[in-house]
Amino acid sequence: MKKTLLFLLLFTFTLSATAQSYMGYFHDNYAGVQSVLFNPASIADSRFKTDINLFSISGAVQNDLYGVKLTDVYKDGYDFDAQSKMYAKNSNNALLNFDIMGPSFMFNIAPKHTIAVFTRARSVSSLRNINGGLIDQIKDGLDEASDFNFNAGNANGASNTWAEVGISYAAVLYQKDQHFLKGGLTAKYLQGGVNGYIHGNNVQLKYNENRINPERGTLESTGQITIGTSQDFEANEDYKFDSGSRGVGFDLGFVYEWRPEYEKYDITKATRADNNFRDLNKYKIRFGLSLTDIGSINYRNARQDTYNVNGTITQEMINDADDFYKFLDQNYQKTTTTSGTKTNLPTALHADVDWNIHNKFYLNLNGDINMISANKINGYGVADRITLTPRYERRWFSFYVPMTYMQYSGMQVGSGLRVGAFFVGSGSVLSNFVSKESKGADFHLGMKIPVYEKKFKDRDEDGVIDKEDACKKVAGPAENNGCPWPDSDGDGVFDKDDACQAIAGPKENKGCPWKDSDGDTLLDNVDACPAIAGPVENKGCPWPDTDGDGVLDKDDACPNVAGSVENKGCPDLDADKDGVLDKDDDCPLVFGPKDNRGCPKVTKETLAQLKVEAKSIFFTSGKASLNDARKGETSGRLDAIKEILKNYPNAKFAINGHTDNVGNAKANQKLSEARAKVIMDLLIEKGVNPANLTSQGFGASKPIKSNKTASGRAENRRTEIVYLGNVL
């Protein structure tokens, strides 16, 4: 066996890869049957009548050991060892996925129920917990290596190829106002193909170089290595298909949509042309959660060999081995079982949030979480990842740019396109185009026959869709195949319902004109007195005058009591019995003489009382605010003034403010004005008619005592209420 034997032992699965397929595409609302692979609930209430997949394929590879410039890999003379970059660590990983979807379809079996049937061939492999430093040390063979001592640990690799036939059922579970929930379940029949795995258990490798005779170099090892295959390839290298190697699997998913504009899509208000709004995406935000690939495949004829690799071998023994199995068989103790094995599916949890930013623009955030232990024997799964994808989508076109952080391979940016029946894309094409150290690559493409839900055409908007409308450009009833009924007299009553087809008339009279029996210009159908002429305003009836005072009831404020025209048909009144009729009385509720238009006159006694009350209103010194200590007394004075003034509803009074001559004259003037206004505002608050009051300040210009003495100045600081005459 050649020098690369041990390198192959550790690197058998390095070109394996992840189970993430159709990256960036499957969250498109027009992904159709492909979307059921990631969330079976997605097909319910879809935009399709049916979607038929003819052929589609997806593949991906990820690793965290080697970084390469993919655009150079296929060039002549490319040296992988020299031009790639290694990122060796104690636990390197690699994953591979290859997914072919054969003839598949989905269709609606009822408005809220959808099924899908799909066929699929898959190959998923993984390599985990590989010591990258060891690979770097021996990639040129042990005879080229120098001394090393590595803990290979629990290296774990698995690969499985199988076929699936699945049936999915999805339904709308809950719908109320803006809330919309749907769920889905997939059941899969699994036919096993080829399965293989290798698992290390606490493997330790130590190499001692012999510089004089390289073939005498020694490799010391400890631990266990388990190798399993779906059939005994050591005994028979030819692959034999085993129909009994089969299993079952399940996918489960839910989708919630928030539809804030749900009233726009009220089916009870939909016209035939709206087709129940089935062609529209109605959500603003969509949340999806699914668990896929729950299940396993049982390989009946599987073989498992467990090698105890405790011991020491020489480089010569490695070089002399013919093949990998013989090398292990010749040098290590082996335990073999042929009782069959069961391998899991790559179970994963998926979540996504899809935001309809505006019209046809969307932003999607989705991620996968691997549910399979990295140390499970014959276990393989997906890589954890999170992807942010802006996209533009229409019925026949979508463009998307997935930006992914992928476990092991890091950040990737790709692009994809869906045009009509074709789609193609990659989650890493853009980053791989510019990166010199790509750690992963993927692609997807396919061809399908989509049959979309659509809004029916109804050009004349008469409720009869064009394909059933005999008059597509002219509105007409469904009873007449979408064509208008004839109307010979143009009165809006179709001839079929018109009793007077040659003469225009209202619909209420079966297309015949109304008569005017009393000749008052009001037609009988709206004339309350069709036999007696009357004004239009009284529905064709004459106006009554119940009290016979010459004022018609419609204008009579007292229709049952005779009165004068001037008083709107009511008798003239004198409510206060002062001999002045209310219509001439400025104070109809207060007794007063005729020469004062029925209002009482302001007497000298009243003015004297007002003077006394006003004099007893006290302010804070130098301010226009009432003295806090005497507010109660002041309020009582104001109440007394109010009671006096309300007896003279047509009298006008002035509130005058005065100060002494102490201080600045301008300041005194402003202070007197402010104090007078304060009194006026307080009286208005208490109910005095503001039209009867004015306020004015005179400062120190009108003293009533000498300002040379304190008592004189106190007298000069005052407010007065002055009678000005009657309100005009």
Automatic annotation (TrEMBL):
First and last residue of the signal peptide: 1-19
UniProt-listed PANTHER family: LIPOPROTEIN YIAD-RELATED (PTHR30329:SF21), STATOR ELEMENT OF FLAGELLAR MOTOR COMPLEX (PTHR30329)
Alphabetically ordered keywords of this record: Cell outer membrane, Cell projection, Cilium, Flagellum, Membrane, Signal
One CC-aspect GO term: cell outer membrane
SUPFAM superfamilies: OmpA-like (SSF103088), TSP type-3 repeat (SSF103647)
Protein name in the entry: Flagellar motor protein MotB
Record flagged with keyword Signal: yes
GO BP terms: cell adhesion
GO molecular function: calcium ion binding
Protein localization: Cell outer membrane
Domain OmpA-like positions: 606-727
CDD domains: OmpA_C-like (cd07185)
Main location: membrane
Cited InterPro entries: Bact_OuterMem_StrucFunc, DUF5723, OMP_bac, OmpA-like, OMPA-like_CS, OmpA-like_sf, Thrombospondin_3-like_rpt, TSP_type-3_rpt
